[in-house]
Specification:
Residues 1-22 are annotated as: Disordered. The chain has 2 domains: 32-169 and 331-391, D-Maltodextrin-Binding Protein, domain 2 (3-Layer(aba) Sandwich); 171-328 and 397-465, Periplasmic binding protein-like II (D-Maltodextrin-Binding Protein, domain 2, 3-Layer(aba) Sandwich), CATH 3.40.190. Helices cover 40% and strands 12% of the residues. It is built from 20 helices and 11 strands. The N and C termini lie far apart (50 Å).
Length: 470
């Protein structure tokens, strides 16, 4: 499998904000999420146990790929008959709240937790996670160098990996080449947002229930702000400058947000202000949108013949750009061991089972190649069964992920890590508040100018936490 790289610009490494105490995370990072019960509620399932079994508790998000792992747990039991696995499977927002509260408080309820590259480095810096380097090195055939490099770096802190990826993603554009051809248009492999707007205006046909483009509008730091932040990046915008001065009132941010809002209001789907990832996926899969910019993991739904009518009628291009060479994001669901776990060796055996190359082969053979967790291991794209079905999206996926760095995707140096998010504890709350303002602008209940004025006020409060004295 060929890979792509770009030297890009080189930015100076930034210093990270001071680590947060457990109290500050529990008191501030979970604000707006409500009190998180630490009891093992939600959907729980376990493997067969015996009197001599060692039991571990695994907290995961109830996404389809994770549910597949629960269904395949007997394979783990056959290899590890003395380890009993109890799953706590919860919807994403509830899982984040419960896992964060448990790990930050040192509660010790969980032996394995599913987190992301948003949490990993922050929690490692705070001493809340177990360094996994020695575990990976001592496990025959684990091959940590097989992880996609940008994903491995995103899950590391000071040269050590503290969580391992289950699946990862960047972002790209899916489009209908048949519709473009009918309109006399041709999609570049590296389109600009100006070109995408032009194509959307031509392809938009409400009378035929065809949106020119689908874009997320549903408020949330992990919903509408995910694609929008990459647009802000490639327009040359930023949330804060190197002195933590808020920049959401800059011309670059205004231009990016105005383009996004106007595009989806004019050429997008009905009800865009409340459309999340799942809504857009359904729209595209049922043939009601000509283009969609979003996560590369969309392919699992679009290419699934059981839920999609367009799997044979689509192609993929890199994320649209303006002032940068690339404009994708980087995200990974990963597995980590809290430092408080008393069963670290057993926990690692489970993590190794769920993230080693053999697991992906197992999923393909038992469930189907389209169900493979994408975007974690390079070797996944070399499995013959998967390579065949991924022929038209493997290269753009890997190209996007290989180049999802701030050097390639941003114009200015910034004091925070992250592309579609800011790796600071306050971003869950800040991002959701800003996302609500953007959603209101998409709904037409306020102007982009008013939305960004309020967003700037929210950002100023956070900036003072990091020393800005404006």
């Amino acid at each position: 499998m060929s890979h792509y790289s770009s030297p890009g610009r080189r930015l100076h490494r930034r210093s990270r904000p001071a680590p947060l105490s457990r109290r500050s995370v529990l008191g501030g990072g979970l604000a707006g999420l409500g009190a998180a019960s630490l009891s093992l509620s939600g959907c729980t399932t376990g493997s067969r146990s015996s009197g001599s079994s060692e039991s571990i508790v695994v907290a995961i998000v109830s996404n389809p790929q994770m549910q597949d792992a629960i269904g395949l747990i007997e394979d783990f039991r056959e290899q590890n008959p003395d380890i009993n696995v109890q799953f706590v499977s919860l919807p994403e927002n509830e899982a984040r709240a419960k896992i964060t509260a448990s790990v930050a408080s040192g509660g010790g309820e969980f032996d394995v937790v599913m987190i992301s590259n948003y949490e990993t480095a922050m929690w490692a810096e705070n001493g809340w996670l177990t360094d996994l380097e020695s575990y990976m090195a001592d496990t025959d055939g684990y091959e940590p160098d097989d992880f996609i490099p940008t994903i491995r770096e995103a899950l590391s802190y000071e040269g050590s990996q503290y969580s391992v990826p289950f699946y990862g993603e960047s972002s790209f554009l899916v489009y209908r080449p048949d519709l473009l051809e009918e309109a006399g248009l041709e999609m570049p492999q590296r389109p600009t947002w100006d070109e995408i707007r032009e194509f959307a205006s031509t392809l938009h046909n409400p009378d035929e229930q065809m949106a020119g483009i689908a874009l997320r509008g549903l408020a949330g730091w992990g919903e509408n702000l995910a694609p929008l932040n990459t647009v802000i990046n490639t327009f040359g915008g930023q949330w804060f400058d190197m002195d933590w001065r808020p920049m959401l009132d800059s011309q670059e941010v205004h231009d990016a947000v105005s383009m996004y809002v106007d595009t989806v209001r004019t050429y997008g789907q009905v009800g865009a202000a409340t459309s999340g990832f799942g809504d857009c996926l359904t729209l595209v899969a049922q043939g009601n949108a000509a283009m969609w910019y979003d996560a590369t993991s969309m392919v699992n739904g679009i290419q699934d013949p059981n839920s999609s009518t367009v799997g044979d009628s689509v192609n993929y291009a890199l994320a649209p750009v303006m002032e940068t060479d690339y404009a994708g994001w980087l995200y990974a669901w990963s597995l980590a061991i809290p430092e408080t776990s008393q069963r670290k060796d057993a926990a690692w055996k489970f993590i190794a089972w769920m993230t080693r190359p053999e697991y992906f082969q197992l999923v393909g053979e038992e469930i189907g190649w389209e169900a493979l967790p994408p975007g974690s291991r390079q070797s996944t794209y070399e499995i013959p069964g998967y390579a065949e079905i991924a022929e038209n999206y493997a290269d753009p996926t890997l190209d996007a992920m290989d180049n999802a760095t701030q050097e390639n995707c941003m114009v200015h140096e910034v004091p925070y890590e992250g592309l579609q998010f800011l790796a600071i504890p306050e971003f869950q709350d800040l991002g959701t508040r800003v996302g609500q303002q953007i959603s209101a602008a998409i709904a037409g209940s306020q102007s982009v100018e008013d939305a960004l004025t309020q967003a700037q006020t929210f950002a100023e409060t956070v900036a003072r936490t990091y020393g800005w004295d404006g």
